[in-house]
Design a protein that fits this description.
Helix 3 runs parallel beside helix 4 and helix 6 runs parallel beside helix 7. With 266 residues, the protein is an alpha/beta fold.
Length: 266
């Protein structure tokens, strides 16, 4: 699908936080806090059936109750609830989703079955998905901080895409100490839909991005990745750190995102 509808994820006109919360320390609370403190200019719709108001905003029981267009859904609910939520998003005309929820293919067969259900629901519409099992997305040019990370990057022109949310936290911390700016931080998770090839294509066409850094545990569509990387690297440098090259590293990658090793030669 390449870059189709990815603008709905990185530059949404409105978004819903499904699993928004007033409970400090929760992912739903952190997402709402970061979006509001980051200065996001679009409408934010908290979704939680148990609260009429969250973070000073009217909360809705479900995305279908909003009654207004929503570009992006940020989902932070138990993994078992995600397939019907994606179905609701499709019915509501949502075209982008970031699934924070963990418990997909990285846990084995049951997780793979849930991801297959999510994919089945997504195929009923035109929704694009980042994740699941990710730490979220940051686009400094759009003041979009759809993440539960506890630090925000300085603006810049370097994009960082990672399969490891923990590494994103470490790079964020280092970048602030070294005063290095970023245009994007993308925690890509287990790549149910949007993958490295898609994001390289998208960021390669973004004039606010001058270079791309990748942390890769596994590649799902190698031919597409190579095609995108070959084209974009002619105009922007791409730096890749490939983990899982040793036996221990491969086991760690498999337990983290369900990725299999073997793409080091690529």
């Amino acid at each position: 699908m390449s870059i189709y509808n990815l603008d709905k994820i990185f530059r949404p006109g409105s978004l819903a936080v499904i699993g928004a919360s007033e409970k400090k320390g929760s992912i739903g609370y952190a997402l709402m806090h970061n979006l509001q403190e980051g200065g996001y200019k679009g409408k934010i719709f908290p979704i939680n059936p148990n609260h009429p108001e969250i973070s000073g905003l009217h909360a809705y029981p479900s995305i279908g109750d909003i009654g207004q267009p929503v570009d992006l859904a940020v989902i932070a609910t138990p993994m078992s609830t995600v397939p019907p939520i994606i179905g609701e998003c499709v019915k509501a005309g949502v075209e982008g989703a970031i699934i924070i929820s963990a418990g997909g293919k990285e846990i084995g067969l049951k997780g793979r079955e849930i991801e297959a259900e999510i994919e089945k629901e997504a195929c009923k519409g035109s929704i694009r998905i980042i994740g699941p099992n990710c730490a979220g997305v940051i686009c400094t040019g759009a003041n979009l901080y759809a993440t539960f990370a506890n630090q925000m990057p300085l603006p810049g022109k370097m994009a960082f895409i990672s399969q490891s949310g923990a590494l994103i936290g470490a790079i964020l911390d280092l970048s602030l100490k070294k005063q290095i700016g970023f245009s994007h931080f993308v925690s890509i998770g287990s790549m149910l839909d949007a993958d490295f090839g898609d994001l390289i294509d998208y960021l390669g066409n973004d004039p606010d991005v001058s270079s791309i850094v990748l942390y890769i545990e596994g590649i799902t569509r190698a031919r597409k990745f190579m095609s995108a990387a070959r084209a974009v690297s002619r105009v922007k440098p791409i730096i890749v750190l490939k983990s899982g090259r040793s036996t221990a590293g491969a086991k760690a990658a498999a337990s983290h995102t369900g990725s299999m090793a073997g793409e080091s030669a690529i």
